[in-house]
Amino acid sequence: MLKVFISNSILSDIIFQAEDNSKTTHDAVYRLLKSHQTEIYVSDKYSDTFPLEVELFCQNYGNIPKESRCDYVSGIQSNPSTVLKEPSSIFLLDIEPKTAKNIQDNYGVICLSKTEAYKAGAMLIDDNKEYSPDSKVDFYEGWATVLSGIKHLPSNSLIINDRYLFSNKEHWKGDGLNNVCQILQLLLPATFAGRETGLSYNVLIIFDPGELCEGHTFRSIALELISRITCMRKYTIKLEILGIAKGMKTDSIYFRLHNRRIVSNYYIIKAEQQIAAFHGVKGTCNQTITPQRFFTADSLVKDTNSSSPQRSIQQLVEVLEDFDPNNVIGSDGFKAYFYFSATSKDNVKEECRNLANRLIRKKKTKTDKEL
Question: Phi-psi category of 215—alpha, beta or left, where left has phi over 0 and alpha has psi -120 to 50?
């Protein structure tokens, strides 16, 4: 479900503009608002009744604006980091365009002012082009080509999941380390909240520690990833590396993590065979890779059989929400998983209380201060 936090005046304006048949600029965002997959939260309580245009909108589509979080919506301008409490939502606010852009650039959420709110639809609805690299010929610019349609979207978190990410010994069959680094160099935003805020961009990488090529261990791969990734940008990157192998205590999670996925707060990339998809710009195998934004046009239509990419994102997140590090201890008293986290190569931890990636909704402990 997509949450839209919106100023009352913008909601009325979008409905009015979209119902004016001579204007089409607001069509896409209007389709988002009227969708059964969207929840609307307004900034102010209405006095007694909805304005006429909103009332008719509710009657026609049944998507009634909620007034339960007015304080949250109205307080974003004075406390913008609170948008990270809803990292996959969109924010259409009656604020200055420059302020909205700063929020979007600093916190990796879609935040648009009244004059640009109409752009939200086009940012989240896509026809989802498929790419089919193979192992015999060069594929344009490799990952740069595949990710070209989504890399500009706001982002505050990433999850990379592939059981066999580091299983290939021969680089031409797929070097996991180099592919992960190429992907992150393309997808990590140019800016994020400054180090002084205490906030970080979140990256979680998941693979099977029992499926590693000869000469590598979970520790050696984790430390190499930490060394390469945490220094990629000037802002803080909190990197988590999770190894889940097949075993009695982890099977319920392990078998549900069989798909190869790259997930951010507004998009998902699906790979048929492997995420270690390129050696240079040549494919490492014949497969289809599909970058998808939150919705396809068909998935927004009620009573269709088309499942939204957003649902695929949620399926992966739900599996990880079920991961409880306190409940995967083997009979011998040892952990049935492997874990590292770091914000630099000098700040490495192996203790996991909960996964910290903000896309994974967990109950925070008293000491969990980061949004």
Answer: left
Amino acid at residue number 122: A
Selected residue with higher pLDDT from 245 and 67 = 67
CB 111 within 8 A of CB 93: yes
- Hey, what domains does the chain have and what are their CATH numbers? 2-124 (3.40.50), 143-349 (3.30.870)
Look at strands 267-271 and 338-344 and give their pairing: unpaired
Q: Are 37 and 1 in contact (CB under 8 A)?
A: yes
Q: Of 298, 296, 305, which Cα lies nearest the Cα of 127?
A: 296
277: number of CA atoms within 13 Å, CB side?
31
What's the rounded Cα separation, in Å, for the pair 217 and 162?
16
Specify the DSSP element, H or E, that contains 219.
Answer: helix 218-229
| pLDDT tens sequence across 169-205 | 666 676 899 999 999 999 999 999 878 888 999 999 9
Q: Which residues of 64-85 are buried (b: 16+ CB within 10 A; e: fewer)?
A: ebeeeebebbbebeeebeebbe
For residue 314, pLDDT beyond 90: yes
Beta-carbon contacts of 311 under 8 Å, excluding residues fewer than 6 positions away, are 299
Q: What CA–CA distances, in Å, run from 43 to 32, 38, 67, 252?
A: 18, 16, 7, 41
The helix, strand and coil proportions of the chain, stated in percent and rounded to the nearest 5, come to 35, 20, 50
Q: State the pTM of this model.
A: 0.92
Average pLDDT over residues 235-242: 96
- Cα separation, 314 vs 127, in Å, equals 19
Q: Which pair of tokens denotes residue 156? A: 């505050």
Can you tell me the distance from the alpha carbon of 308 to that of 357, in angstroms, rounded to the nearest whole number? Answer: 22
| CA atoms of 81 and 71, how far apart (whole Å) | 15
331 pLDDT higher than 70 = no
